[in-house]
Specification:
Strand content: 5-15%
Mean pLDDT: 95
Structural class: alpha/beta
Low-confidence stretches: 404-409
Distance between the termini: 51 Å
Radius of gyration: 22 Å
Strand order of the largest sheet: 2-8-7-6-5-3-4
Number of domains: 2
Order of helices and strands: HHEHHEHEHEHEHEHEEHHHEEHEEEHH
CATH architecture of the largest domain: 3-Layer(aba) Sandwich
Shape: globular
CATH superfamily of the largest domain: Type I PLP-dependent aspartate aminotransferase-like (Major domain)
CATH topology of the largest domain: Aspartate Aminotransferase, domain 2
Number of helices: 15
Oligomer: single chain
């Protein structure tokens, strides 16, 4: 019997990040020397006090169902965190907890999009953004943000893209995969456009808020345009800042009506998030950020190592990241060249495949809506990053101009 798949599931695909990671793991399993720069997952361990809080919750029998919008104490801790770290005021009914920030985003679109509604997605972008829109019947309006504009959305692009069916704008800063960080002036200019279109809501993905290399505290468009808070959803979590990717806790903060609708979606999709993980997240938000400067310094060191190495490679143009833990590189200058075996590099995916053969796993920019680029993760050991730069340079140096016959040894 043939399985008939729904139209909605056929609109989306498996995560390209997971596929690249799996391929690198397969090669490692075969004994190959592969430096893995694919996954945006901190290589640091979850801080000890957070793990201790989870164990204490287990010992206390805190292993039952939780309230769908999240444990009250954790939601209160998010309210306090937002006021303390972000200078933003929310109330308890405006905060919802979910199984990771990805579910928060999915719930928001499930609660607000009808067939054909549009969501403006600046690219490059995290692949979940357009696929979550498509799965929920919406249409992603992908706006290309070039290297020349720092991979950031311009006000005139936003204004030109807004139509009567536009429901959301997504802003991600610091960005994945770009590492781009919007300045106060840039955010204010975007806010000015949004004020002219009150039917457009804004989803703020601020998962990387504390991983920034300018030494400044987190900064949101809501700090500059507090009037937009009434139609904004701020998405955060514990995965990046606290190295808690596997704990699967994210939060959304937005108007009560939206929070209620998202809770309805979650009640039928997954119910409340893990009681143990919520206990750990509570300890994270209440335990301070004393561990963070050393981690950010490590990311900065890795960034500098990779940027310096790749900036010397002919054919590569590096966007120096201002935050996050990725280095995004335009590789148009290498397209049309030939590998030593005569195969031509026509796309960023071809180049990523060649680098993998040479022992460096990266992800093609096409996965993030912008080609030809490559994304390299620096959320791995400093020694790995230090080795990767020269290995990438050596692999690129093996590529030759000319036809396939000239390219063959």
């Amino acid at each position: 019997m043939t399985l008939r798949l729904s139209q909605r599931v056929q609109r989306v695909s498996l995560s390209p990040n997971a596929a690249a990671k799996a391929r690198a793991n397969d090669l490692r399993g075969e004994g190959r020397d592969v430096l893995d720069l694919t996954t945006g997952e901190p290589d640091f361990d979850t801080p000890a006090h957070i793990k201790a809080a989870a164990w204490a919750a287990i010992q206390a029998g805190d292993t039952k169902y939780t309230a769908t919008p999240g444990v009250r104490a954790l939601r209160a801790a998010v309210v306090a965190k937002l006021e303390r770290e972000n200078q933003l005021r929310y109330t308890l009914p405006e905060v919802v907890i979910a199984n990771g920030a990805k579910q928060v985003i999915f719930n928001a679109f499930a609660a607000t999009l009808d067939e054909g509604d549009e969501v403006i997605v600046p690219v490059p972008c995290w692949p979940t953004f357009p696929d979550a829109v498509r799965f929920n019947g919406g249409v992603p309006r992908l706006l290309e943000c070039s290297l020349e504009q720092g991979c950031k959305l311009l006000p005139q692009q936003l204004e030109a893209a807004i139509g009567p069916r536009t429901r959301w704008l997504i802003l991600n800063s610091p960005g994945n995969p770009s590492g781009a960080l919007y300045s106060d002036a840039e955010l204010s200019a975007l806010a000015e456009v949004l004020r002219r279109y009150p039917h457009v809501w804004v989803l703020l993905d601020e998962l990387y808020e504390h991983i920034r290399f300018d030494g400044a505290p987190p900064r949101s468009v809501l700090n500059l345009a507090p009037d937009l808070q009434a139609r904004a959803l701020l998405v955060g979590g514990v995965s990046k800042t606290y190295a808690m990717t596997g704990w699967r806790i994210g939060f959304g903060a937005g108007p009560h009506a939206l929070a209620q609708a998202m809770t309805v979606v979650q009640s039928q999709a997954a119910s409340g998030a893990s009681s143990v993980s919520q206990a750990a997240a509570l300890a994270a938000f209440e335990g301070g950020l004393g561990f963070l400067p050393a981690q950010v310094a490590a990311y900065r060191e890795r960034r500098d190592l990779l940027v310096e190495a790749l900036s010397e490679v002919p054919g590569l143009e590096v966007l120096v990241p201002q935050g996050g833990f990725f280095v995004f590189v335009r590789c148009a200058g290498l397209l049309g060249r030939y590998r030593p075996d005569g195969l031509r590099i026509d796309t960023d995916a071809d180049l990523a495949a060649w680098l993998l053969e040479q022992g460096v796993a990266a992800i093609a920019g096409s996965a993030y809506g912008l080609s030809p680029w490559l994304r390299f993760s620096i959320a791995t050991a400093t020694g790995t990053v230090a080795q990767a730069g020269p290995r990438i340079a050596a692999a690129c140096a093996l590529l030759r101009d000319g036809d396939a016959d000239e390219g063959r040894p």
